[in-house]
Design goal:
Elements (H helix, E strand, L loop, with lengths): L7 E2 L3 H9 L6 H11 L10 H7 L5 H9 L2 E2 L4 E7 L5 E7 L5 E9 L5 E5 L3 E4 L12 E5 L2 H14 L4 E4 L9 H11 L12 E5 L4 H10 L4 E5 L5 H7 L8 H19 L8 E7 L7 H11 L6 E7 L14 H14 L3 E4 L11 H6 E4 L2 E4 L20
Parallel strand pairs: 1-2, 6-9, 9-10, 10-11, 11-12, 12-13, 13-14
Antiparallel strand pairs: 3-4, 4-5, 5-6, 7-8, 15-16
Helix pairs in contact: 3-4, 5-6, 7-9, 10-11
Length: about 400
């Protein structure tokens, strides 16, 4: 769904390349210097030529005037709500984009000193995948984020504290906004700007198009990949992840593990063992039985040495179907079958942190039409099967 945007983000790679091609920025080096200068601290509001020249004299006065004329801003979005858990392990903030749409970003902290921070970024407003158990999926797709808007989330988080890992597990399906997501990853990995190591970036996908997973080999071969599987067979997956009806399960798994195999071939000399993260949201009486565990083990058996299974007990959200969290006994029995009986690397991922209830989901459902907030009805945008937001990253 297209969006009408008045301002451009200085972090947008398409903008920066265009300025270099036009000769406004004489070299790519100057473009990188501009982005590096703008990375901290974040500034909201209009930016005139004096501001751009002031933070980065290397761009030159003429280029600074062009940035002002083209409505380039340091930050095209603004934070409207921020909250941290009582334990201090999670901070969530809601950001309003320039057209009034809203997204959520989350910082998660691990370790006794809380220094291993991960930011979970959104790549779309809403999601066209319409996963049955995911609140974001009920929104439909309201719009794609630009690469600059994705980077702005990282810049804000990094201004609060040093960010070690980045996970594309927030709102939206990354492969459904492929160009912007890949562009943002390239920027994050730029050594002279954001300094994020590729293997510390995890891209999570429901895998609605295996061909796009194959494209990752050429575009971002070093990032980690997480596959939102959520079911041990095609029948159950079709029921809770609607887009899976178009993608045979074995074709999806084959494409995902081919990506991992390619990574392993590249990194063999470095002694690294690339793995595919399998995300599995556990729903009571849907996919949490012992038979489901055994069936999942058989499904993934050919790739057992390349898979890490993350079991995520369902966290109740605002969805139309009354899914329930699994019983803890069932969760650990499921885990035991995978790990002890079948030898998989399997982990139970509990909710990382709870904050006081803030109706972000309802706010995100509101679209500004003619100055009035209206509800975006699921079904009015493209629909399919989707992902749940899950918090996991390398540490």
């Amino acid at each position: 769904m297209s969006r009408r945007l008045e301002w451009q983000s200085v972090f947008d790679e398409v903008l920066l390349r265009g300025l270099v091609v036009e000769g406004i920025l004489s070299t790519e080096k100057r473009a990188k210097l501009l982005v590096a200068a703008a990375s901290v601290p974040p500034r909201e509001g209009a930016c005139d030529a004096a501001y751009w020249f002031g933070i980065c004299p290397d761009v030159g006065r003429a280029a600074a005037h062009v940035l002002e004329e083209r409505s380039v801003r340091h930050m095209t979005s603004r934070v409207i709500h921020i909250e941290t858990t009582s334990k201090g392990d999670t901070t969530k903030f809601v950001t309003e984009l320039q057209d009034g749409l809203k997204i959520e970003t989350c910082i998660m902290r691990k370790g006794t000193t809380r220094t291993r921070s991960t930011v979970c970024v959104s790549c779309q407003v809403g999601c066209s995948m319409a996963c049955k158990f995911c609140a974001t999926g009920t929104l439909g797709l309201l719009g794609n984020l630009t690469s600059g808007e994705i980077i702005e989330q990282f810049v804000r988080a990094n201004a609060l504290e040093p960010i070690r890992n980045v996970v594309y597990m927030g709102m939206g399906e990354p492969l459904a906004n492929y160009a912007a997501v890949i562009s943002s990853i390239h920027q994050l990995c730029e050594q002279k700007v954001h300094h994020v190591a590729p293997h510390r970036i995890t891209l999570s996908t429901v895998g609605f198009d295996p061909r796009l997973i194959e494209d990752l080999i050429n575009d971002v071969p070093d990032v980690s990949l997480a596959l939102s599987l959520h079911a041990p067979n095609q029948l159950i997956r079709d029921q809770i992840v609607p887009t899976s009806t178009k993608v045979p399960l074995h074709s999806l798994l084959k494409a995902a593990f081919q990506f991992v195999d390619y990574q392993r071939a590249l990194s063999a000399k470095k002694g690294k063992r690339q793995m595919l993260f399998i995300e599995y949201c556990m729903l009571r009486n849907v996919n949490d039985s012992e038979n489901c565990a055994k069936e999942l083990a058989q499904l993934l058996k050919p790739w057992k040495d390349r898979a890490i299974i993350n079991l995520i007990p369902y966290n109740p959200t605002d969805v139309s179907i009354d899914f329930e969290p699994p019983d803890q006994t069932a969760v650990w029995r499921f885990h035991h079958i995978l790990k002890s009986d079948h030898g998989f690397q399997a982990f139970v991922r509990q909710e990382h942190g709870q904050v006081r209830t803030y109706s972000c989901h309802r706010a995100l459902k509101q679209r500004q039409v003619g100055g009035k907030a209206t509800e975006s009805k699921p079904g009015t945008a493209p629909r399919g099967g989707a992902r749940i937001r899950m918090h996991h990253a390398r540490t």
